[in-house]
Write a structure and sequence with these properties.
Length: 93
């Protein structure tokens, strides 16, 4: 039989990770995306380095940010399910 353990410390850590994902980190990713879009507008910023930013730097960075946001949301969902399953199995609240 495998061990099932979930302490109050684990419950608190899960809550903190979820809070960071939903309340802070994904908001920061959205803020970065907004500023990246501003800098991608040649009417706002132009020149050789700005064109490089628009053409490769920002699209690559945006793709990485979108992937990170998606993976963080998956992590948040997994933590929620794991937490519910463990606390249900252990009779915890």
């Amino acid at each position: 039989m495998s061990r099932v353990l979930s302490t109050e410390q684990a419950k608190a850590a899960i809550g903190q990770v979820q809070s960071i994902i939903t309340g802070g980190f994904t908001d920061q990713i959205s803020a970065l995306d907004a500023q990246g879009r501003v800098l991608s507008d040649p009417n706002v910023w132009d020149g050789p380095l700005a064109a490089e930013f628009r053409g490769s730097t920002w699209p690559e960075t945006k793709a990485a940010l979108d992937k990170a946001r998606e993976e963080l949301e998956q992590l948040r969902g997994q933590l929620q399910k794991i937490s519910q399953d463990i606390f249900s199995a252990g009779g915890g609240a």
